[in-house]
Design a protein that fits this description.
Length: about 230
Amino acid sequence: MPDENTGRPDTRTSKTLHNGIEVLELLGRHPHGLSVTEIAERIGVHRTVAHRLVRTLEEHRLCRRDAFKRITPGPGLIALAESVESDLRGVALPVLTELAESQEATAHLIVPEGEDEARALMVVEPSRARVHLAFRPGRVDPLDQGSAGLALLSAMPPRPGERAEVALARERGYAVSHGEVTNAVTGVSAPVVRSNGAPVASIGVSVLDPQDPARHGEAVRAAARRIAARLP
């Protein structure tokens, strides 16, 4: 891995470990799997090197092969992730569950991932709704698309060229989007902001046929305040 200042390889880091982490990040973006050849091409190594990396990750259950020999994320990643953001998970789960039931819609907690992406940390589906959206935690989307990312941006300082929807979300306390992340689905989300003003997450619902987005907006705003008040 090159040093940011000199451009030369950084001898303080492990290239093999760096490549292994690149494989895991790549699989996180392609949950339906990649072949060893595709992995090699995308991280820029020989196929033999990619094969060794995959075999090592398989031994630690961090990836696995499906029936078509495509490499997918492994169950060992779940165990590693359990302790990450555990306080936020514990505080948010009962609030998410109540939100999903009261709104009869899938509720989600989204966290910022770097400067330009947002990751689904938790997803709770309603138990009584006849129809609802289903998606898995771990999904990563652009920060400037979808209500969850727009809500996070609304709690951050304005950025040059930001969308008008972000300013509107700042004004009313929640963001609304339609069909930006998933076709025909409306998202309504509000930012969860710590006492120091920093956004830690957004909480929202994904609605297939919204009758009153403002009602969902008030619900997600209230849920966001409840989570923020309980954070350590």
